[in-house]
Amino acid sequence: MDVRVFRKPVCSVLSVRTQCLFSLTSPTRRHQSTSRRSKKMLNIKPESSFRSTIDAKQDHIIFNPPSAAPSVLHTPLKFLPKNDRRRALLKATENQKQANAVVPPVIEKFLAKWERNHLSEKDVEEMKKLRVDDPVKWRLDKLSEKFNCSMAFVRIISAELTYQHPHLREHAIREREKAEAVKARWGKKRAMAREDRVKRLDLALKDA
Amino acid sequence: MKRLQLGRWSGQLLCPRTRPCCLRQQQQQQVYQRLHVASSIRSQSTSSAAEINYEDGPESETLAEIDLDGPVPEFPSPLPEAALHSAKLAALHARLSLPQKLPLQTMARTLVDSTADPNVDFNNATLAQLGGNLMSYYVSEYLICKYPRIPMTVLFAATYAYNGPKTLQIIGKEWGVETAAAPGSEVDPGLLQFSKMKPGTQIPGFGQGQTRPNAHHQSNRRGVSSRVVYDDEFGDTIPNKTTTHDNVQTTELAYANFVRAVVGSVYAHAGREAAKTFVKQHILSRHLDISQLFVFKWPVRDLARLCAREDWEHPVARMLSETGRRSRTPVYVVGIFSGTDKLGEGSGPNLVEARIRASVAALKSWYLYSPGNQVRVPSDMESEDAVPWEPVHIDIGEIV
C-alpha cells in the first residue's frame, strides 16, 4: 500500500509530459467542491467591449461578435478592382493592422518540395524514354524523385505516353485491376471509412 | 432609342371579344371563330387581319349559317364573360395587387394553357413567351451587374433558381392558384386549365431529342460556350418536336407558363415599369444564397493560376490556429496568404481539408465580388428622367 502511494508521484515527475510536473501534489489539487470555490472559478473578467453603460460618457454599441468563419461576401482588399470605393477605406485599416502585424507561420507540409521550370527538353525526352521502356520500374513517383519535379508534371507526360503506346495502356489497365483487387479485400470498416473520406472531400470542395 | 408604342401592342393581345361592342354580335363572332379557327395552331402571336372584329364593320355573312338556336357548342375553355363573375379570379387579381388596367378577361386568359385551348387567341402561349423573355432578361441583367465576376455555370444555376420552371411553379402555388381537373367551358376561370399528363408517361431524358445541330452524336461535348449559343437561358437543351407531348402538359410547366403569362400581361396592359416592378417584387425578392452554388475541382491550383494571372505573389498556406493536434478531433484553421494579404480562411479536421476549404473560400470571394446592392442595371436607363449611364464593372473572365 505504501509503495503504491509513493510510486505515483515519482512516476508523474519522471514522465515526459510537462503538465504532469505540476500535478506532483495530486492529492492537494483544488476542486470546485464548495460553492465559494465554484463562484470564484466562474468569476472571469468581462470582455473589454462590455463596458458598463451606466458610467459611460455617451451611448455606445457593444460589438463583440462570436468567433466565426469570415463570410465570402466580404471581398478581401486584394480582390477589389482598382476603381472600387471600398479600396481606399480598407487600405486605411489594413495599414494600421500591418504596422504591428505578424504573419502566421507557413505550413511546411505544403511548401513545394520540387524545383519548378528547371527541366530541359532533353530531360523530358529521357523521362519519356525511361517510362516507355520500363513502366514497372519507373513508376510516376520514382520519375518525380529522379528528375526533382512535381508528380503533376510527371502525370501530364505519362498521360500523353499512355495515349500513344498500347503496352502502356495495358500496363495502366493492369495497375487499375491490381488496385481494384486491393479494394475488394477491404473490410466493412475500411471501405466505409474510405467512402466517408470521399464524401468529406466533396463537401470541402463546395466549402459546405 | 425608339420607344415602343405599347398602346398599339396591347390591341392584338386583347382578343377581339373583350372589346366593348355589341354583345350579340360578339357572341356570334366567337361561335364563328371557335368553329372555324380552333383547329389552326399558329406559332406567331400576331393575329391576322381577318380575325379582328371591327366595331363598325359589316356583319359577316357566314354568321347566318350558324344555327344559334341549336345546342351550345362545347368550347375548350370558359367564355370571357365568365371571368367577370369568377370570385377566384377577382381574388387572385386583388391578391397580387395587379394594376386596374389589367382586365379580368386577360387574367382569365393567362390561366388557359395551350393544351387546354389550342387557339392562340384564347390561350396564354403568346403572353407566356413575352413574359418569360422579360423575366429572364431582368433576372440575368440583375445577376450580371450585381456579381460581375460570376462564372457562366453558376449564372445558369442562379437563373434557374430565380426563374426556372420549378421556382415558377412554387410561386404560382404561393399565389393560391389551383388546377382544374380537366379543361372545359364549364370550369371556373380562376383555375389553371391544362390537359394533365397521365402518370407513367415517358418524359424524354437528358439529351434526347434536342434542337442542337450535333444532337445526333452520341457523345457530343456540351461546353459552356455552346450552351450559351444553342441552349435555353438556363443552359439546358431545348427539346425538339419529336419528344414533346403536344396535347398534354406537366403541372410544373403549366404553372410556369401561367406565371410567365401574368408578367407578360402586366407588360402588355400596364407597361414596362409595372412589369419590372412586378418581377422585382415577386422573383428577384426571393432569397438565394449564391455562394452555395459553387463547386470546384482543383481549388488550390485555380487560386495559384489566379495569383499568377493578376501578378500577385504565389499563394501560401499559413496556420492561423489549431487545437487538439494529437486528439481524435483536431481542428486546424488555415489561411491562404499572398504576400502579407490574407485571401481566404478555412477550417478542417486535417491540414489538407483546411487548405482546400481556405482556397475555396478565397475563390468564392473572388467570384462573388459585388459593386453593391444599389448597382444600376441597363434597363434603369429606360425611364424618362434617368441620369447618364456610368459603365458597370466588367471582369476579364473566369480563371481557368
From TrEMBL, chain A:
Annotated transmembrane regions: none
Pfam families per the UniProt record, alphabetical: MRP-L20
Q: What Gene Ontology cellular-component terms does the record carry?
A: mitochondrial large ribosomal subunit
MF terms (GO), sorted A to Z: structural constituent of ribosome
Q: What is this protein called?
A: 60S ribosomal protein L20
Taxonomic source organism: Coleophoma crateriformis
From TrEMBL, chain B:
Q: Which InterPro entries match?
A: dsRBD_dom (IPR014720), Ribosomal_mL44_DSRM_fung (IPR044443), Ribosomal_mL44_DSRM_metazoa (IPR044444), RNase_III_dom (IPR000999), RNase_III_sf (IPR036389)
* One CC-aspect GO term: mitochondrion
Residue ranges annotated as coiled coil are none
Pfam families, per database record: DSRM_MRPL44
Report TM segments. Answer: none
List each copy of the DRBM domain by range. Answer: 299-367
- Molecular function GO labels: double-stranded RNA binding; ribonuclease III activity; structural constituent of ribosome
For the keyword Heme, the answer is: no
Could you tell me where this protein is found in the cell?
A: Mitochondrion
Q: Extract one GO BP annotation from the record.
A: RNA processing
Assigned keywords, A-Z: Mitochondrion, Ribonucleoprotein, Ribosomal protein, RNA-binding
Q: Which positions fall inside the RNase III domain?
A: 105-293
Q: Hey, which family's this protein in?
A: Belongs to the ribonuclease III family. Mitochondrion-specific ribosomal protein mL44 subfamily.
Under which name does UniProt file this protein? Large ribosomal subunit protein mL44
Q: Taxonomic lineage of this organism?
A: Eukaryota, Fungi, Dikarya, Ascomycota, Pezizomycotina
